[in-house]
Amino acid sequence: MLPRWSHEGTTNDSEDEEEPKRPLSEFYPYIRCALCSLFLIDATTIIECLHTFCKSCIVKHFFYNNRCPTCSTVVHQTQPTYNIRPDRQLQDIVYKMVPFLEESERKQMCQFYKERGLDVPNTGPVVIKRQKKENIPPSVFTIPPELDVSLLLEFVGAEEGIANYKPLERRYVRVSGEATVRHVEIFIRRKMELSSACQVDVVCGDHLLDHFQSLKDIQSFVGEEALQDGLLVLHFGLVLPSQP
């Protein structure tokens, strides 16, 4: 049999040579989560920038931040979880590259459900049943047009002597421009479980806001100074009422 020749004029014996093996660590930037530094589980990709993380990691991250942890791109002004999608192809690649990872994850999941007396969900292949088009419900992610103002609520601290309040976990809120500062204060009080003796001061830019002011009016007279990536930024602090 005649030898095969490459374009450089040398014999090509690649069929007889074993493909060089690369260490798994070379692929870590592509198969590990940047948030937990472990191998991807339920790989989930941000559609705005295509960075991928574990589903549980990125959902927890979005409780406190609406930007991508890797590139700081704004994922969504108020609901960043709208713009993430499962990346099943990448997850299949991770399971094939890391031996026993899938089996270990399945065992941990079964143990989790059994310890809590719950039925273990079926992890086999999913059978998709066809539905009539008219029976498909409309998207649950439709944002009503009247919710036209996106808020970012920044907590600046509490006066000495104020304690026993919960952190504000939901900093990003979408509301109507007709809502007033009083409505924002009520929201903060409920979420942080504040005492009635505690006063909430709300500031936009350098302006201390009155309860009767609407968000639309605030955004109008403060201008660009009040906005950050399209969100109306309100800073608030907890103070004790002034003594008469």
Task: Give structural notes.
It is a single chain. The protein has 6 helices and 9 strands. It has 244 residues and is an alpha+beta fold.
Radius of gyration: 27 Å
> What is the overall pLDDT average?
79
Largest sheet: 6 strands, mixed
Low-pLDDT runs of 5+ residues are 1-11, 125-134, 136-142
Question: Would you kindly provide a brief summary of this structure?
Answer:
One of its GO terms (biological process) is negative regulation of DNA-templated transcription. With 244 residues, this protein is of the alpha+beta class. Helices cover 23% and strands 18% of the residues.
Which tags fit this structure?
zinc; phosphoprotein; 9 strands; alpha+beta; disordered N terminus; transcription; 244 residues; elongated
Explain the layout of strands and helices.
Layout: H1 28-31, E1 43-46, E2 52-54, H2 55-61, E3 84-86, H3 88-97, H4 101-115, E4 149-158, E5 172-175, H5 181-192, E6 199-204, E7 207-208, H6 215-222, E8 227-228, E9 231-239
Parallel strand pairs: 4-9
Antiparallel strand pairs: 1-2, 1-3, 4-5, 6-7, 6-9, 8-9
